[in-house]
Structures are given as structure tokens and as C-alpha cells.
Amino acid sequence: MRTARLRRVTWEAGSVTAAQAREAALAFLHEVDDGHTPLPDRTREDVQLVVSELVTNALRHAPGACGLQVEMPPGGHAVRVAVWDTSADTPVTQPRNGGRIGGHGLEIVQAVSRAMTVAERARGRGKEVTAEIEIPRSAGHRTAS
User: Fold this and answer.
1) Domains, the chain, ranges and CATH?
2) FRET pair for 29, CA 20 to 30 Å: which of 71, 83, 126, 145?
């Protein structure tokens, strides 16, 4: 059984890209891969996708710093991704529209996550969006990359 593990990263305004945030999340996932039950490629890909979409939204819609927390709770049945930013504006999922360019980030996050929440940060210092990506219980073998 895995114990809770997490990584937190904070970036000053304008000092991170979505690609760098994905790399931070992937480095964490490599650390928690203890060799006994490796994470499935699909879980890794979904975590990177969620990180990319949430960090992109933070960079696009919020001034100031932002942060990322990636966590593997005890039991290892999910990976939690939380991204915080300095905007108090609640993100809104756009109605489905295949012809629209952009604006699909939250829709994508919700599609690959078993849960997504938005919470106000302490003392009104922005918000935190958290998504939980389930690890299939039958996971144990990774596909070739």
C-alpha cells in the first residue's frame, strides 16, 4: 500500500509555462512509481493533460503567481492535481461547441477526472481548482511508450 506523497511548486507571475508544469507533475509521478505497481500510461497522460489545462487557464485568466500540487493519497487509487491562482473569479465550463476554438479546458478536465472542485483560497487570495484522476484498480502493467 502506498503512503500519501505530494509535491508543491509555486511560480511567480510569468515564470512558468504549461510545459514546465507538466514536467514537474511527470517528475513527481516518476518518484511515486515505486517499481511494484507502476502507474498506467493513461493515468500519466491524463495527469499531464489536467495540469496543462489548469495551468494554462491560470496563466490566461489570473494575474500574479500560481501554484501546482500533485498528490498521491494513501491507497494509491487516484492522483489529485490542484492548481491555484490569484483570481477570485470562478471558472465556468463553456457549453459544448465543436466549432469553437479554445475554451474547452475545463470540459477536458472534467472528462478525464472523476471529480473537479473549485475553492476559494484563504483570505480571498484567489482560488484553487482540484481534479482527481482515478487510477484503474486493474492497473499494474504499462503499455509501451
Assistant:
1) 5-134 (3.30.565.10)
2) 126
